[in-house]
Amino acid sequence: MKINKIYRNKIYLDNDEIMDISPLIRQKYNLKINDDIERFYDEISYEASFEKGIFLISLKDRTKKELRLKLEEKYRNKLAILKVIKKLEEFGYLSDLNYAISYIESRKYGKNRILYNLFQKGIDKSTVEKAYLALAEEKEENVDDIKLEKLIGKNSKKINMSKSRDEKKMKEEQKLIQYLARQGFSLDKIFKKLKEYKENYE
Predict the structure, then answer these.
(1) Judgement on whether residues 110 and 198 belong to the same structural domain of the protein
(2) DSSP state, 165?
(3) In Å, how far are 69, 115, 128, 130, 189 from 96, measured between CA atoms?
(4) Of 14, 61, 152, 167, which has the highest C-beta tally within 10 A?
């Protein structure tokens, strides 16, 4: 495996791989054009992937899946990438649980939509459940209930507070229920919280 070309912070290998490397790695292995790096390929891949991983998570929080996919855009050595992700987890720089906690706190969505969105990001249901449990213990309240109550309060003008049949208000409330359901809240929880809201403001 030879280096065909070196340009800026990239080395071009004869297997058509283009690898991002830092000047420190280039200097450490004294890399030059026509060098055969077969012996050092795994080490170089790991060190380059590690540096890139640190850089990427310094820009924004990422899940393990997101970071893996991002690194695979730059490097072909998948074993080196998996090793990097494990090491970053050990150092505490990468945590799907912490990501889930932060995501839940910063989004107004209900649990069903949160579960779906985080699954797309590679976080399994058990990790999301642990995140909800951690937040519930911290706040001594149900996180989903807090979000739903805030959304209901924010949209209070759409709630039919009249005991008489106000067709316009009933339609607005129905639209609100549909909106809340799309945000991932269960219908049982929506009806319960709407009832509580009406009872508190009678």
Answers:
(1) yes
(2) -
(3) 15, 13, 9, 11, 27
(4) 152
187 and 106 housed in the same domain: yes
Q: Give the tens place of pLDDT for each residue, 84-127.
A: 999 999 999 999 999 999 999 898 889 999 999 999 999 999 99
65 Cβ contact partners less than 8 Å away, ≥ 6 residues apart = 121, 122, 123
Distance, in Å, from the CA atom of 136 to the CA atom of 143, rounded to the nearest integer, reads 6
Instruction: Give the pLDDT of residue 108.
Output: 84
Q: How far is residue 79's CA from residue 188's CA, in Å, rounded to a whole number?
A: 46
Same domain, 38 and 81: yes
Q: ∠62-65-94 over CA atoms, to 5°?
A: 45
Number of domains in the chain: 2
Dihedral, 10, 13, 18, 22 alpha carbons, nearest 10: -30
Taking the model in full, what pTM does it have? Answer: 0.71
Q: Which of 47, 65, 90 is the last residue of a domain?
A: 90
* pLDDT (0 to 100) of residue 202: 57
101 and 182: one domain? yes
Upper half-sphere CA count for residue 120 (Cβ side, 13 Å): 5
User: Which domain range does residue 162 map to?
Assistant: 96-202
